[in-house]
Amino acid sequence: xxxxxxxxxxxxxxxxxxxxxxxxxxxxxxxxxxxxxxxxxxxxxxxxxxxxxxxxxxxxxxxxxxxxxxxxxxxxxxxxxxxxxxxxxxxxxxxxxxxxxxxxxxxxxxxxxxxxxxxxxxxxxxxxxxxxxxxxxxxxxxxxxxxxxxxxxxxxxxxxxxxxxxxxxxxxxxxxxxxxxxxxxxxxxxxxxxxxxxxxxxxxxxxxxxxxxxxxxxxxxxxxxxxxxxxxxxxxxxxxxxxxxxxxxxxxxxxxxxxxxxxxxxxxxxxxxxxxxxxxxxxxxxxxxxxxxxxxxxxxxxxxxxxxxxxxxxxxxxxxxxxxxxxxxxxxxxxxxxxxx
Length: 341
Prior knowledge:
Elements: E1 4-5, H1 16-23, H2 36-49, E2 53-57, H3 60-71, E3 77-80, H4 85-88, H5 93-98, E4 101-104, H6 112-118, E5 129-135, H7 148-160, E6 164-169, H8 172-179, H9 183-187, E7 192-196, E8 207-211, H10 213-225, H11 234-246, H12 251-265, E9 271-272, E10 282-287, H13 292-301, E11 304-305, E12 307-310, E13 313-317, H14 324-340
Helix pairs in contact: 1-11, 2-11, 3-10, 6-7, 12-14
């Protein structure tokens, strides 16, 4: 029996239609600005987000890092949420490369009042706060979505204080489906947006950073500096373009499968799942006994691949390679393992 891989939505494989798009991609040297498929992808993402321009980059980490670097100078500070991806999963790049420090707020989402309280103006004794960074959906928050009103209040407060705003929208596609709105609406009020093509959308690689033309020109230089210039990148961009055009609406299936997995685990012995907080395709599963590592090892033996999000927390992520049967099979295995720990 085939494994059910719920470690991440990055483990997806290109669909046959995506492979066809890759094989037929019109390409050129993107470092010279001559790859037509890259240009089409950048223009399409900018259109979806309502920005003037966009830039294709190899990874989501690079998208976040060059955007935040373009907004700041060494010694500046950015406000982020608890366990934000740009802090937790990007290998200390903000400090090591951009030379900025972070002010992590208490929650996975936060309020305009918290932004105003955390803000530090120019002063010889402190690091001035230059950027507010929002993650939507929030990975370590279990794929939760921000409310539109809260987003507007936070961006308005940031701009009133003279700060820039950055949206880590790696899974903005999921947020749009779950919030029953568009990516453009979710991006309103942000000076820069990063989006990922290789998570829920299922492309093999690639992210895009978007913003004003002047901002993207600065990001272009940092992309080169970070080693992100690629040659016949249209091969990858074709996959991303196909994903953007054909895989966004189907994210609703992933959300439904995640909810089914969570509901199947609700009430299971020695397991706690907050079904109400399963907004999208991520399910956080807390064990009352044993460790996440021990449970994950036993699940692997049963053909279920999972990830750890803490000493007793398991993260399961649904995606286009996992159907309802696979999600329920995983829930059954997890429940049996937790009961036996």
